[in-house]
Amino acid sequence: MSEYQHILVACDYSAQSLEVAAKAKAIADKQQAKLSLLHVLDNIAMPDTAYGTVIYLDRVSDNQPLEDEKAKLKEFARQLEIAPSDCWLIWGNPKQEIVQLAEQQAVDLIVVGSHGRHGLALLLGSTANAVLHYAKCDVLAVRLQDK
Questions:
Q1: Does 71 map to a domain?
Q2: Using CA atoms, how far apart are residues 97 and 117, in angstroms rounded to an integer?
Q3: Are 77 and 16 in contact (CB under 8 A)?
Q4: Is residue 18 part of a domain?
Q5: 119 in a domain, yes or no?
Q6: Is residue 129 part of a domain?
Q7: Max CA separation in the chain (angstroms)
Q8: Alpha carbon of 105 to those of 6, 37, 86, 99: distances in Å?
Q9: Which domain holds residue 63?
Q10: How many domains does the chain have?
């Protein structure tokens, strides 16, 4: 039996996020674990959906920014060979949504990128820091290099 059965990687579509996801994929492959991908929408207006904050990838809307986000997630998943059924696009606060989805999906490892901020940025908190403190499962914060 492997140590991890279900790994969730949170992404923002950046090149650094792809590096983080590649590390998560390597762990999933080694552990023979399921790998899921999550992107939290916090930069576009709340889509008008009858089904809450989860955005279904197979439902077409007339909201072009939302359709663009779906396309980005699908392409990111394709690069990592993650099935669309294991991809999540959710509107909300990343700190809350990552932890909540991990609990709902019985995730036992969350992988996030971290810039390792200090000073005021640390006091204000980061997504990785919040996930680390509130998740009920293991969290791997992959150090991102500022470029």
A1: yes
A2: 21
A3: no
A4: no
A5: no
A6: no
A7: 45
A8: 8, 12, 10, 10
A9: 1-10+26-112
A10: 1
The structure tokens 């999550």 sit at 38
Tell me which amino acid residue 85 is: S
Amino acid letter at 35? Answer: L
Q: Average pLDDT for residues 92-105, to the nearest whole number? A: 93
What is the rounded distance in angstroms from the CA atom of residue 20 to the CA atom of residue 124?
Answer: 23
Q: Which residues pair with 140 in a beta bridge?
A: 111
Residue-wise DSSP of 86-112: GEEEEES-HHHHHHHHHHHTT-SEEEE
Judged on CB neighbours under 10 Å (0-12, 13-18, 19+), 62 is exposed
What end-to-end distance do the CA atoms of the chain give, in Å?
39
Predicted confidence (pLDDT) at residue 145 exceeds the cutoff of 90 = no
The answer to whether 103 touches 6, Cβ cutoff 8 Å, is no
Rounded to whole angstroms, the Cα distance separating 141 from 54 reads: 24
Which residue did the predictor score with more confidence, 119 or 74? 74
Q: Find the CATH number of the domain harbouring 67.
A: 3.40.50.620
